[in-house]
Amino acid sequence: MPVDHVVGNPAVASPSRDAKRSARREHAQERRVGKPNERARSRWARCRPWVIGAFLLLVGVLLVRLSRTIDWSLAWQALRAYQPGTLLPAAALAMASYGVYCTFDLVGRHQTAHGLPVARVVGVGFVSYAFNLNLGSLVGGVAMRYRLYSRLSLRPNAITEVLTLSVLTNWLGYLLLGGMVFTIRPLQLPPDWDLDSSGLRLLGSGMLLLVAIYLAMCWRSKQRDWSVRGHHFRLPSSRIALLQLGLSSVNWLLIAGVVFELLRDRIDYGSVLAVLLIAAVAGVIARIPAGLGVLEAVFLVLLSHRVEQGELIAALLAYRLLYYLAPLAVATVLFIVTGLGDSVPRKAAGGNVRA
Predict the structure, then answer these.
(1) Could you read off the pLDDT of 264-282 as tens digits, one per residue?
(2) Would 113 be classed as within a structural domain?
(3) If 0-12 CB within 10 Å is exposed, 13-18 middle and 19+ buried, where does residue 272 land?
(4) pTM for the model
(5) Is residue 63 part of a domain?
(6) Which DSSP symbol is given to 333?
């Protein structure tokens, strides 16, 4: 019998020292190099604070420069000059927008079949939206929804799916309207900007392409169930996808209608919608609660050559009052007084509640 086959021979019983060293070196190299997507995420995590900081610095510089050119006495005078005939229609449009947004969670209710009462779902949607706008998406859109739905005994996976559908619904309409506005009728940029509309048209085409891809997936995709980081999501039907698109589009149009009404026909509706869509993305990038300062900076930069700055500031202040602060006050009272977060009977909440 050959010596190497004898039981207990070190050459057979365990790997050689060279093999062990080679394995350790390979493992160390893998840890240093990492996977491509992990390296990309790590680089973005290091660069993100600098990118956000640079953006905030730019916004701050713009605000300081613009604030020096604004006649604030005229702005306050324009704000005090608002009549009920202007404020009431704007408030009605704001209420209609909140009503439409609350239906986003009803889409999630239908998709997950969780069975919570419609009134409770609408209440959660309203409170979450008001807190989301004023305190940021993590506090309002995410944390508030999880808190309220958890107190209503909804399972975490169902909450995640409702939240995901709500976010998708919101941005679907944004992509559709933004794509149409930027492609068909690009915004008239300030005359001192040496830019043409080709970039906006390209951006609009890309936005419309994303909408088409989502609708095609909901219509024809064979893989309906997706899992991202342990969270389950099921693609809705094409009919629900079209409903998402319609509801979100109406909501964005209503929001733009609030600002348009407060500007009292000083500028066309299409321009107001385009600037609002740009300001919405700027606010998301900046991650400032309520987009404070960002919204005003975008509107002033893009429209101050067409609308008197005092009137523009007055309209934006009135918009914040009607669309941000007033609903937040109502949502706070609703959250504290009405017992929205009280649990409901297991039978009423359906199969997707905790046992």
Answers:
(1) 888 899 999 999 999 888 8
(2) yes
(3) buried
(4) 0.75
(5) no
(6) H
